Amino acid sequence: MDPFVLYSLAFALLYISLYFIFFILKGNYSNNKHTILPPGSNGWPILGENIDMAYSSSPEKFIHERMEKHSSQVFKTSLLGEKIAIFCGSSGNKFLFSNENNLLTTWWPPSLTKPLMCPTQSQSQNSIKKIALLNRGFLHEILKPENLKQYIPFMDSMARDHLKQEWVPFKEVKIYPLVKKYTFSLACKLFLSIEDFQHVKKLSDPFVLVTSGMFTVPINLPGMPYNCAIKGGKMVREELMKIIKERKNEKNNYSDDLLSRLTSFSDENGQFMNDAEIYNNIIGLLVASYDTTSAAITFVLKYLAELPKIFNEVYKEQMEIRKSKGEGELLNWDDIQKMKYSWNVACEAIRLMPPAQGAFREAITDFTFGGFTIPKGWKTFWNVYSTHKNPKYFPEPEKFDPCRFEGSGPAPYTFVPFGGGPRMCPGKEYARLEILVFMYNVVTNFKLEKLVPHEKIIYQSSPVPLNGLPVRIQPHGNLA
Questions:
Q1: Model confidence over 351-375: pLDDT tens digits?
Q2: CATH number at residue 296
Q3: How far apart are CA 158 and CA 171, in angstroms?
Q4: Number of domains into which the chain is organized
Q5: Judging by DSSP bridges, how do beta strands 463-465 and 457-459 pair with one another?
């Protein structure tokens, strides 16, 4: 008999057995009669709703279907081997953002931490919480706008060089892989002072394996994406730990990069971070700057290629800035502040195609929301999909309309690409600068024409154009 058929039969018999065990256990299980859990489904035995999520056309569809079927406030599901309450709407976002460290604490799925974090840290959620607290104080401080101003000219210079090398010689380019290359190179320079192409590639090649596999089904078998993510994570970890040790051993360290600041940072008790903590802070920023920011820039350019009127308005604004600059003069903070319409366009692109789906928390006590009890130990998840395209908050939600962000902008807790509350993404301002600087350089030099009109979007850790967003580029003139 065909081995595949034998395998399928064995799997079917195993599943049927587990299915009956599941219902026997379910019949013997009883909650406190006064406890009303959120409506929803735990899905298949052991597998939960992972298969449903995987085969859904998008996370957005998965969320919206369950909001309609179960509750528009909160529903339960089972993902990543955990019981999870999915909070929805602006009230759900507000509740989770407002109760950090009161009812909820930081939680990351083991399937995410194992490929990324140091083994000594990844085994303990307490270690994760410690890192989160360090992040909150330290990263928010160094990523404040006033501390990022100095990097704007360098971002501009790198963007110019990138376009000259990777765009100008060609009539057609694939935007997504090029943007990823740019954002990772920029992060290596600003965070680690690494400029050498081969050294950057030594980090980026295994990093691709990590980001491609860390949100897949955590099956650690040879050839599986998750197995590749673990192998890639090991290579990245070895290289970064080597860099950290070398930096600590330098007698004269004149670098003003993130790594130097991490090695010299101490908490209120005068305690310095160990190598593992430094590594985990660096890797968190690399993931954010590489994956989510790359996706954000890609979809901003996608909409600019699709919408000529929007492109022309952005072009006018950016050319006013360009005309005010001297020959070869780089962008500065004042220039960024003039890019108001451009940022509205970027926000609208992020609303329609958010680069991050949301974030997990863990309940540290029983609590109620919307009349339902969330038991201690359950995981929670706030998501962008329940508000970003909700007509209650954004009329004609599928329409691209940057005017939504004029004045006071959207209602509180409805536009949440960077989260909110104490755990709002500390890299929000860094992402804003990176997006606007790259927009400026592309728009003032090229018009874009999509080559695949209805390109499919696939979902990994962030949404990704299936073909890499190929475009034909039409230069306005010579690069400055």
A1: 999 999 999 999 999 999 999 999 9
A2: 1.10.630.10
A3: 21
A4: 1
A5: antiparallel
